[in-house]
Amino acid sequence: QVHLVESGGGLVQAGESLRLSCAASGSTSSITGMGWYRQGRGEQRVLVAFITNGGTTNYVDSVKGRFTISRDNVKNTVNLQMNSLKPEDTAVYYCNAKTTPPVVVDYWGKGTLVTVSS
């Protein structure tokens, strides 16, 4: 089991920045990658950014150039630096961890709300 705890959400104005952090505990040696998903009101949860243990990153097109994901494999933390925030970035952001194959399991944090006002 992997336990994830997010922090750093809040209310900001458009153009401002926020930094989300997620700390993993438990069976962290089984983690192969960590990332952030978001879910707007009435929408499905979608991938925002992901980083593997080797440092390979993946971003959804809408955040490229504005968001940066980083990982500390020793501390088992993942951060999401969000710059130039837009109202459409408003959502609950969930930390995600994926574990080692052959059975890949998704672990989720409880989520942190990010609200961007115009």
Description:
The protein is mainly beta and 118 residues long. The mean pLDDT is 96. Strands 2, 4, 5, 6, 9, 10 and 11 form a 7-stranded mixed sheet that branches. β5 and β6 form a beta hairpin. The protein is globular, with a radius of gyration of 14 Å. Helix content is 0%, strand content 58%.
SSE blueprint:
Layout lengths: L1 E6 L2 E4 L4 E9 L4 E9 L6 E7 L4 E3 L7 E6 L4 E6 L8 E9 L6 E3 L3 E6 L1
Parallel strand pairs: 2-11
Antiparallel strand pairs: 1-3, 3-8, 4-5, 4-9, 5-6, 7-8, 9-10, 9-11
> Number of DSSP helices?
0
Helix/strand structural class: mainly beta
Strand content: over 45%
Return the average pLDDT rounded to an integer.
Answer: 96
Oligomer: single chain
Largest sheet: 7 strands, mixed
What's the helix-strand series? EEEEEEEEEEE
Count the beta strands: 11
**What is the percent of helical residues?**
under 10%
Taking Cα atoms only, what radius of gyration do you get, to the nearest Å? 14 Å
Low-confidence stretches: none
Distance between the termini: 40 Å
Global geometry? globular
